[in-house]
Amino acid sequence: MRPANIVTAIADILAGVAISGYCINVSLNNVTLDGILPVICLCLATIGLYGGGVVFNDVFDASLDSVERPERPIPSGLIANSQAVILGSYLLLVGILAAFSVGGLTGFPGWLAIGVAASALVYDKWGKHHHFLGPFNMGLCRGLNLLLGISIVPDALASWWWMGFIPIAYIAAVTNISRGEVHGGSVKSLRLTACCYAAVYIAMAVLAFLHHHIWTALPFIILFACMINIPLFRAMKNPVGPNIGKAVKGGIIALIAMNAAWVAAFDTLSFALVVLLLLPVSMVLGKMFAVT
């Protein structure tokens, strides 16, 4: 289920909630159960969707992993393929139902959750094998996940739907280099990813400036840039598999810093710090469980 990655998906939801303006009149001192319950349900939704998606990734990759990554749960015999299918299906179902509990049958959250689940399964089975569509497909899962958080305020989607393209570009850039984790990658591919990274944090700075929160968001943006660029530049100097793997892992874990920066740009410093607290949780889980 990639627990460390699931924490980053929760951060996506919290960033989307901040972008929607849902918490604009809420402080940590006046949080109510009625107010926080939809946020909890959307976090549960993304846990199920992300967890189910990566379980099915291992299901579809079982034969390849038996050669390249025999330590993974299915090829190692830790869990049967049929058991993994049941687990993945259950997680996706929980994710979709949790999203529908927020907006009802006619609301955006449930249908966005279906879109995330469908995009994840398409990627797992077919998308990853396409040079261009694969990274875009993987990014689409993250873009829809951010929109899932924004959909907590349905009217906000009309204003901020286009922000889904930012995580699409970012995750496409991470996925672009992930193919080199086993056999190594190319410097050209790494440079392309670096350009995409730069476009993302420049866009973050511009939006923070337009919302008059540039000085609040800037430390988070700098942290995000450092987390993704340091391992990436090391991989550029020596693009062998282990260095590529560290660059990919850094790109995934840094999503929490990225989302904290969005919160700082659209909401308050206190909520941004709450999101940033997920970073050490994800880093600890990243040492205990596989990230890629």
From TrEMBL:
GO terms for molecular function: transferase activity, transferring alkyl or aryl (other than methyl) groups. The chain crosses the membrane at residues 6-24, 36-56, 90-123, 159-178, 190-210, 216-235, 247-265, 271-290. Keywords: Cell membrane, Membrane, Transmembrane, Transmembrane helix. The keyword Cell membrane applies. It is found in: Membrane. Its main location: membrane. It is a multi-pass membrane protein. One of its GO terms (cellular component) is membrane. Signal peptide: none annotated. Gene3D superfamilies: UbiA prenyltransferase. This is UbiA-like protein EboC. It comes from Chitinophaga eiseniae.
